[in-house]
């Protein structure tokens, strides 16, 4: 039996989702929470880890 498909806006848990240039990863975290999984997502940032942690301290939570 397959997993129930979940939708949020234009996004579906059955899609493969690539999120490029995430600021603090809050958007990808909200999708993962809504979908109850992040196995179908890849999220990236253009910033270095040091810069990211300095500018967006909340990103560690996501």
Report on this structure.
With 62 residues, the protein is an alpha+beta fold. The protein is built from two helices and four strands. The chain has helices at 26-35, 49-55; strands at 7-8, 11-12, 17-19, 41-43. The strands form two sheets. It has a two-stranded antiparallel ribbon with strand order 1-2. Strands 3-4 form a two-stranded parallel sheet. The longest helix has 10 residues, at 26-35. It is elongated and about 40 Å long.
Global mean pLDDT: 90
Uncertain parts = none
The succession of helices and strands, N to C, reads EEEHEH
* Secondary structure: number of strands: 4
Residue fraction in strands: 15-25%
GO biological process, one term: rRNA base methylation
Protein name: 25S rRNA (uridine-N(3))-methyltransferase BMT5-like domain-containing protein
GO molecular function, one term: rRNA (uridine-N3-)-methyltransferase activity
Pfam family, one: BMT5-like
List the defining traits of the structure above.
single chain; 62 residues; alpha+beta; two-stranded antiparallel ribbon; two-stranded parallel ribbon; 4 strands; 16% strand; elongated; BMT5-like; rRNA (uridine-N3-)-methyltransferase activity
Short account of what is shown:
With 62 residues, this protein is of the alpha+beta class. It has two helices and four strands.
List the helices and strands and how they pair.
Blueprint: E1 7-8, E2 11-12, E3 17-19, H1 26-35, E4 41-43, H2 49-55
Parallel strand pairs: 3-4
Antiparallel strand pairs: 1-2
């Amino acid at each position: 039996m397959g997993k129930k498909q979940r939708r949020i806006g234009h996004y579906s848990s059955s899609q493969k989702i690539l999120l490029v240039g995430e600021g603090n990863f809050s958007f990808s975290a909200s999708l993962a929470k809504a979908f109850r999984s992040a196995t179908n997502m890849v999220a990236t940032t253009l910033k270095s880890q040091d810069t990211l942690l300095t500018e967006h301290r909340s990103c560690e939570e996501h």
